[in-house]
Amino acid sequence: MEIILYEDKYLEEVRDLLVELEDYIVSIDEDDLDRVGPNYREKMALYDLEEVKNNDGKCFLALEDNKVVGLIMGYIRKYDEEDYLDYKCPKYGVVKELIVSSKIRNKGVGTLLLEKMEDYFKSVDCEYIGLEVFAYNKNALNFYTKNGYHSRTVNVIKKVE
User: For residue 136, which of 34, 16, 20, 15 has the smallest C-alpha distance?
Assistant: First the structure.
């Protein structure tokens, strides 16, 4: 297993992983709100990579036999004037995506990727790391809890009938 910095030659494999994750999210979405839109595969990786690039972030890939089996994307959170009204605004790293192919899950790849991103955030003096987890993704919630993360906010919804 090798962890490397993203290279453009792996874009198609990154797209595959993002689609794999979104297909999974759609399959567990009890509210039936998520979908894989017609342009998702083509555009989502580019949006994510642009956000990483524009916000002092990194994308790391896990390679096995020169094939991408996992990825993590993260960036430094930027604040606006409103944030400073009621928040201390520490330097804060954001994990945008963490995906491990279903073919290789539960073999420590996610932990290696998370540790790599945490090391990056430490190297640029982040005080905190945050991320969003889909509430129905119990496996991801358990993974992050085991790695020392905890809930700070909870987003609730209700269908209007």
Answer: 34
